[in-house]
UniProtKB/TrEMBL annotation:
It comes from the Eukaryota. Residues 2-33 form the CS domain. Transmembrane segments: none annotated. One of its GO terms (cellular component) is cytoplasm. InterPro entries: CS_dom, HSP20-like_chaperone, NudC_fam. Signal peptide: none annotated. One of its GO terms (biological process) is response to stress. It comes from Linum tenue. This is CS domain-containing protein. SUPFAM superfamilies: HSP20-like chaperones (SSF49764). One of its GO terms (molecular function) is unfolded protein binding. Pfam families: CS (PF04969).
């Protein structure tokens, strides 16, 4: 069974896009756009029916209905989005900063890449 057929209107972040089955009959798909500006797409797929953004009403959040793993992922994505809006580091960037703080650069050996060129 084909759920979405055609070329998507824009690029998506595959690693940040998810699907899950609701009530054993509805497939819910979350596509995270690669476009940082999060502009509305004219349609889901190129050449598909246009989306009237004036009629779009966001569905109320029901994080409690999600399984724990998916809920954790969605909460992380929401946190990261809020951080980006405030020009603050995302959860992955915070984790990288913490790792760098633990690393002792004073024990590193300096390598001069031009020393063997004579």
């Amino acid at each position: 069974m084909i759920i979405i057929e055609g070329e998507l209107f824009g690029q998506v972040k595959v690693g940040e896009s998810f699907w899950h089955l609701e009530d054993q009959k509805t497939v819910s798909v979350l596509l995270t756009k690669s476009d940082e500006r999060r502009n509305w797409w004219k349609s889901l797929v190129k050449g598909g029916p246009e989306i009237d953004t004036q009629k779009v009403e966001p569905e109320p959040s029901r994080l409690g209905d999600l399984d724990p793993e998916l809920r954790s992922t969605v909460e992380k994505m929401m946190f990261d989005q809020r951080q980006k809006e405030m020009s603050r580091p995302t959860s992955d960037e915070i984790q990288q900063q913490e790792l760098l703080k633990k690393f002792d650069f004073s024990k590193m050996k300096r390598v001069d890449k031009f020393s063997n060129m004579a």
